[in-house]
Design goal:
Helix content is 44%, strand content 16%. With 492 residues, the chain is of the alpha/beta class. The radius of gyration is 21 Å and the shape is globular.
């Protein structure tokens, strides 16, 4: 499999080159040149471990990696750093299935891909005989930052620099980032929102003068965001693994269709599900679940993508995004991989904050259903699932769960998998408030202990270690100082 830029169809690279570059030099995102359905024998696949499934799927995407190299990356990533032997267990609760993707070192789904990305990147370096140091720039809405720093901490030949919105992440998310160890990890709070940080990171990737400056120092930029295809394709694996678990548990017959409801911010997680469907996974509907920042819901209903609206800070902060970077990939496919139309829309988005597709193009998004959950609906869903099933979910998972219920009459009666993207321990304040516990006078530690008393679930290692580590001082900078901050780091 080769990859091409959404902004230039003649810009074609190998998988390893796409992983090293992160973002295409023309500003586009790399997408597969073509995807062919796999031959799927569920009698065999149902018995695959997570590591076996990852090797099986990644062989399709990583065309210039040998199988030995892929196995090395997979086995290095999916080890005892996960606190559940299944890696991504499937739990049945309240009539649906919850795919728990939060058993990694930072208790969020980003661990599923960011645990393997450092292995993919260093292997890609070897494949391309690249001797440059890699400077990884990452904007985060809360989870990617910590997971990326944990993955790349003290990896030789790398520096990782993370920017997150000051006041726009949970206290636990911020504490996780500020307690990260590693001489090559750096984190900054920016005076702005996630979209501001992401735009600036993209601009820096496309700053030719700055890139030449790095080149003179034998360095190059790459990304740990899902803009990087090396972050995106490992996420395809857990959709296949979830389906295999349903088959193994006798919940479905091989080739029965299944719906997935995905809490959606930057669109990488649900795009991975779309690619899984392209590979032949029997998916019915992909449910795009948004919070009050419901720009995607509006698009799927009207064909208008409009960011000219209030940016709302919510209790599901990893979804507080108006410009979903990965949506460019899906739009490109819906336009028939026609670059001129894609470029025109991306330019209109940059200049006017919006674009509109034709009714004919909108019909090409028929794999998706979309809706959003308000703050009150999200809190109520946490409360309802707990009361009905004694199962506690975080606010992002609650958004996906509530939206799936709201869309019940628009779906076929397929089994439903709700993609559970974070542990409730990552958002104790919101979860406790949903369960009618006043947290106004509680510290983080008191909230965590209160949640433990309710769930009767031991702290995951990520929380235990968090309590033992001193936090570094928070560094807050304006957006305009991001470039200067990067320059100071790479000069050392």
């Amino acid at each position: 499999m080769l990859y091409k830029s959404t902004r230039n169809p003649d810009h074609i690279v190998t998988a390893s080159q796409a992983i090293l570059q992160g973002l295409a030099s023309d500003g586009g995102l790399y997408v597969p040149t073509e995807i062919h359905p796999l031959s799927l024998d569920w009698n065999e696949l149902q018995d695959f471990s997570y590591q076996q499934m990852a090797t099986f799927i990644l062989k399709e995407f990583l065309g210039d990696f040998t199988e030995t190299q892929i196995r090395y990356c997979v086995n290095g990533a999916y080890d005892d750093g996960f606190d559940h032997e299944t890696i991504a267990p499937l739990k049945k609760a309240d009539g649906h299935y919850y795919l728990e993707l939060f058993h990694g070192e930072t208790i969020a789904f980003k661990d599923m891909a960011l645990s393997i990305l450092p292995y993919l990147m260093t292997t890609a370096n070897d494949i391309n005989h690249n001797e440059k140091d890699i400077v990884i720039l990452t904007a985060t809405s809360g989870d990617t930052g910590k997971a990326a720093m944990a993955g790349f901490a003290d990896v030789p030949g790398t520096q990782i620099i993370v920017f997150y919105p000051h006041g726009g992440v949970s206290s636990i998310q911020e504490r996780q980032m500020l307690t990260q160890e590693g001489n090559n990890t750096h984190v900054f709070a920016i005076q702005g929102n996630f979209d501001d940080a992401q735009k600036q990171v993209k601009d820096l990737f496309n700053d030719q003068a700055f890139n030449e400056e790095l080149k003179e120092q034998n360095k190059q930029f790459s990304s740990a965001n899902s803009m990087n295809i090396g972050r995106l394709v490992p996420q395809v694996v857990y959709y296949f693994f979830a389906y295999a678990q349903l088959v193994k548990q006798g919940e479905i017959e091989p080739n029965d269709k299944v719906d997935f409801s995905v809490p959606t911010g930057n669109f990488g997680n649900i795009l991975a599900a779309y690619y899984a469907k392209q590979l032949g996974l029997p998916i019915g509907n992909l449910i795009c679940a948004s919070n009050d920042n419901n720009v995607l819901t509006e698009f799927f209903e009207t064909g208008i993508y409009n960011t000219n609206r209030e940016f709302i800070l919510t209790i599901s902060p990893s979804m507080d995004i108006l410009i979903s970077s990965n949506f460019e990939r899906l739009l490109y496919h819906a336009l028939g991989d026609y670059t001129p139309a894609l470029n025109a829309m991306m330019n209109h988005l940059k200049e006017k904050g919006s674009y509109q597709v034709t009714e004919e193009t909108l019909a090409n998004f028929s794999d998706f259903l979309a809706d959003f959950a308000t703050e009150e609906e999200t809190l109520q869903e946490i409360r309802d699932v707990y009361q009905n099933a004694q199962y506690v979910i975080d606010p992002h998972t609650a958004v996906a769960s509530k939206v799936a219920r709201k869309l019940a009459t628009q779906r076929e009666d397929y089994p439903l998998v709700i993609v559970s993207t974070a542990s409730p321990y990552k958002f104790p304040e919101a979860v406790l408030n949903a369960l009618n516990i006043n947290t106004d006078m509680m510290s983080d530690d008191e909230m965590l202990n209160a949640l433990k008393d309710i769930t009767h679930v031991d702290f995951p290692p990520a929380i235990t270690s968090l309590n033992e580590k001193p936090a570094n001082e928070r560094t807050i900078i304006p957006i305009e100082e991001m470039k200067a901050s990067i320059r100071r780091i790479i000069a050392n």
